[in-house]
Amino acid sequence: MTRFRASAPASRRFPSRCSTSSSCGAGRSTASARASTSWPSSPISTSSCWSTRRPELLMRILLLLCNTAAFLALWCAGCATDAPEPYLPEDVGQTVEGPGLVSRGAHLYMKYCQPCHGAEGKGDGPAADVLDTPPRDLTAGQFKFRSTPMGSSPTAGDLYRVIALGVPGTEMPAWGDRLGEQEMWSIAAYVQTLEPGFGDEATRPKPEAVIDIPAPPELGADAVASGQKLFGQFGCTSCHGEDGRGGGPSAADLEDYTGRPIAPPDFSTGVYKSGPRPRDLYRTIATGVSGVPMPGYAGALKPDQIWQVVAYIRSLRQERGVFDYLLATDPGRL
After folding, report:
1. Is 237 inside any structural domain?
2. Which residues contact 143 (CB under 8 A, 6 or more apart)?
3. Keywords in UniProt for this one (predicted)?
4. Are residues 47 and 106 in the same domain?
5. CA angle 249, 252, 256 (to 5 degrees)
6. Is the pTM of this model over 0.70?
7. Is the pLDDT of residue 44 over 50?
8. pLDDT tens digits for 203-217?
9. Mean pLDDT rounded to a whole number for the chain
């Protein structure tokens, strides 16, 4: 539809084809159309051409809005569901060998990881200041998600798993669907060279120390009830709260190893930073989380009891609507 200037002569106010076209339903002569037509009050013409096209335009806008809403709903739902699993090593040694593995990993690290983690792995990359979650300092030896005891360095398999799955709820993406297995092994091998503890015999991960994750027992309603009791009995509620939403009495005073205030996760979201699978939760409960006040319970709980706590935590998940994600004030806890 053409927009007209106020200085346009009367003969140019409306194109003659709109006045005489049968599709407009006018059926009038050009002269009679000009005589009976007044100057529109807005730049959009209110002629019958607009009347016939308006429903189609409104329908297109409605379909666009519906498609956008559907996309957002599916995307947000995917944030709290189990994603397709890439290849993930579970039982690997402390090293990964191969010709040129570290040098290739250094090249890939500078391409994909350096913008956040920095050229030297200190978490000071050019994008670090704009991220809600500070990037991990890979030289500090404080790797959160490990299959090794507290105070030990992670295995190459632990690093590979974090690279492949990312860290849900943070800006650390999952590279499992973007990089090949050899590329992720290369990055893992290079990251090990950044961590001084890996070269220290006292903290170097030993294959025999890697936690064994047994197959889960039946995790029904009884397991959930038992897990809830253990959750309170072993002090989990002091940080995570009675409802598992991270509002426990100690939550406001929590800090990481750098002194930065941190918040416990909200289990009702169904988003777990250690990974989407039940075994990822089991591993974190058993080994603890380095650099934060989350201890490991492998020596305090039996394997079946850890699985019961896993069952209870996963039972706390609540469905979230699209507006819960769009209006969240703390997206890192969603």
Report:
1. yes
2. 136, 153, 154, 158, 159, 195, 290, 291
3. Electron transport, Heme, Iron, Metal-binding, Transport
4. no
5. 120
6. no
7. no
8. 666 666 788 899 988
9. 77
